[in-house]
Design a protein that fits this description.
- By secondary structure, this protein is of the alpha/beta class.
- It has a six-stranded mixed β-sheet, with helices on both faces. Strands 7-9-8 form a three-stranded antiparallel β-sheet.
- Strand 5, helix 5 and strand 6 form a beta-alpha-beta unit.
- Helix 3 packs parallel to helix 4 and helix 7 packs antiparallel against helix 8.
- The longest helix has 17 residues.
Amino acid sequence: MRIATGCISHETSTFTPVVTPRESFFARYGAVYGTAIIEKFRGTNSPTGGFIEGAEAHGFELIPTIFAAAQPSGPAPRVVFDDLLDELLTGIAAAGTIDGVLLELHGAMVAEGVDDGEGHILAAVRDLVGPATPIVVQLDIHSSISQRMVEMADVLIGRESYPEVDMAARGRECADVLVRILTQGVRPTMALHRLPMIWGMNQVTAHPPMNAAIAELHRIEAQPGVVCGSIATGFPLSDVPDMGSSVYIVTDNDQVLAQRYADELADWIWERRADWQLTMPSTAEALASAEAAGRYPVIFAD
């Protein structure tokens, strides 16, 4: 099996007037292309590191294209977005005959004139590879999932931890699911349920209330016919139409079942929405709390 892979990742704040230049996408890791991506990310706790682990475990050929990941910042200029996408598409096309695609995206990317960066990227990749080539995508937990993303990809898999410590594990899961599609006849059907809520900041998955939501997700993932599922808490600093929280579930050739479980988990979250309401202290309250602590150092974080 020959699997193309690539990364264009950016968590975008639309509230800053400062745009994100091209060089920001290569500032952390350098301009890494082709097989150098495997050398750079093998053994790392990253989605691409998980893709590489999966390729080596299952014995398929991984064909890397581009790795472009900027730190959270303002929207990229349209020319930068288009150039990065063109490099991804050129790399996939140059790979020749492929059996599938593994992508590392964020889920909250906005560029000038593009409110749904991931939906735009996935539509372009789908147009290139055709309807029969499976596309499996690894996303951040702070994703805003659009219907277009669900329609253009075969499988979306979000991270299940915050702080995010399961990046390689979720990348490996993507590789495992892709192999099941290609070798075991799994036919993924994906359903989305968007929640009319902006998730509170208390999202640490090791503690309540978030750990209970992840446990409920795992309960559904263990049901017969379910391939995988994810919770996306959204990214409020991307002020775009598709911003918001959601649940997305993938089943094996059963759209009705996928939607049923997506609705069930979304309803479970909605019934407990008050658990994620968080009242932040005022500046005066924070200062008073620091003085009352009676010891130093004191750290204020926003």
